[in-house]
Amino acid sequence: MNDVTRRFVSAQTKTNIPLFKAGDDIIVSQKIKEGDKDRIQNIRGTVIARRHNNEIGATFTVRKVTDSVGIELTFPLHSPNIEKIEVVKIGKVRRAKLYYLRDRKGKRAKVKEKK
User: Fold this and answer.
1) What global pTM score does this model have?
2) Handedness of CA 21, 61, 18, 4 (dihedral sign)
């Protein structure tokens, strides 16, 4: 990577990102622009995947269930539209990707909390 690219990447990356992994419950505060107004929407869900660690193109996928309908949202980690990320609960899991939660319902779709 040349010097110009390195400076650009370091200017775009965020430094205030908490440590989280698959299985954790998080709250993502996302900026939403509606017309000429800006507002912040909080999305709480379980992280089912995290890709590319902390690189500039890193993403994470959050899954939440609302009215028995599963919603998955994929966020770029270093996006300027993400205001903050809060870790609510640390999950006890043994896998890096939790795609099997898509097929589960009710209590079976919950991730146990790490003590």
Assistant:
1) 0.90
2) positive
